[in-house]
Amino acid sequence: MNKSKSLRPFFILWSGQALSLVGSAAVQFALVWYLTQKTGSATILATASLVGFLPQVLLGPFAGVLVDRWSRRWTMFLADSGIALATIVLAYLFWTESIQIWHIFVLMFVRSLGQTFHHPAMQASTSLMVPHEHLTRVQGINQMLEGGLGIVSAPLGALLLALLPMQGVLAVDVITALFAVTPLLFIVVPQPEQSAEELATGQKTPYWTQMRQGLAYVWAWPGILFLMLLAMLVNFVLTPVISLQPLLIADHFGGGAWEFGAMQSTFGIGIIVGGLTLGAWGGFKRRIYTSLVGLVGLGIGIGLIGLAPANWFWLAVVGGFVGGGMIAFVNGPVRAILQTAVAPEMQGRVMSLIGSMATAMTPLGLMLAGPLADQFGVRPWFIVAGVATVLVGLSGFFIPALLTVEDGRSTPPNLPERTTDQSAQAT
């Protein structure tokens, strides 16, 4: 890719996607709140969460192969359009007052399924649209967006519910989706290089062959394997922290909705500040150092929340701010590493596989943390999770394969060689 190539097409595409995410986050809050008011059932809410991550866990590796096989531009277009169409159907059901709880579950599943295809396609396209030296900064901006969504989604969703009926709220999501879909009709999204064999035969490599190639690519690269293992460990201990946070605030700090909102907002502000810092600084020259330092800082932040005495809620807020800021330092460089070190034609498969394995730790962590928290209280999990995250971060500095992950090859054994003149092939 030409490093002097304009970033304007990418940021036009990114801006439309960002606006769509704002609408989607507000609608997600509105739907969860509707389920809460309508049913008051923890089982219903848990089921909603389950259908929200099942597609990525179960279908992610298979979707990743398709992302690498298909046009990434049209993959994003169809994913966004499919989500918008499902939202229109749900809005109609609300309008005709024929809505059922299972209808909402179906929409949440369709949303998650669309994201299972859209996210790796967007991430894999980024590496071909942005010069590699700017990828960490771009990921810093992405972290700012994610932090901002954490802050604005709840109040924006609540405001929309106060002003509009549910079908009107859903219509807002459809309108913002147009800003994501429309640029894809005009902007060139590069495709990765084709193999010499594919160019010679004019045929795609068979699906299951590409699946095996993707698994072999990861298996033969120790640095990527360790990166995936660290992501799984961190997700395992930290995901329950999010679910247990309301109980910690209510039972330990004696707080209510205001304190819970303050903690959520502070965490989001921390992500924005961390993303802004990463975007301006760019991180260490070797990106993995930035992520490992971020892991240590994240563990310290979570540990502070658990160690804060009942009358020191401010210390927990500080811990939340530190943890949020370090989240940006962890995630941004890792995504940039995958975008630079992994061969472009393999990125859909690798990113989907890592995402699926990390997300699969969510139910396992929750199943273990719930009974332990009931038995020993919520605070110990925060402390243990903080210490474990610090240890994971520190251990990374002693794993040579992980420290040199950015030096990995672009083509693994048994993968057909790529051509040298297709780097800007457009859809």
Commentary on this structure:
This protein has helices at 8-39, 42-69, 72-95, 101-129, 135-163, 166-181, 196-201, 207-219, 222-252, 257-281, 287-307, 313-341, 347-376, 379-396, 400-403. It is mainly α and 427 residues long. It has a single domain (8-187, 204-407), classed as Growth Hormone, Chain: A. α1 packs antiparallel against α6 (166-181). The longest helix is centred in the N-terminal third of the chain and has 32 residues, at 8-39. The model is unreliable at 410-427 (pLDDT under 50).
Keywords:
Growth Hormone, Chain: A, disordered C terminus, 78% helix, 427 residues, mainly alpha, globular, 0% strand
In short:
The protein is an all-alpha fold. It starts with 7 loop residues before the first helix and ends in a 24-residue tail after the last helix. 78% of the residues lie in helices and 0% in strands.
- Pick out the low-confidence regions: 410-427
Shape: globular
The figure for the number of domains is: 1
Report the count of strand segments.
0
CATH architect. name: Up-down Bundle
Give the CATH topology: Growth Hormone, Chain: A
Number of helices: 15
Mean pLDDT score, rounded? 84
**Approximately how much beta-strand content do the residues carry?**
under 5%
Order of helices and strands: HHHHHHHHHHHHHHH
Evaluate the radius of gyration.
22 Å
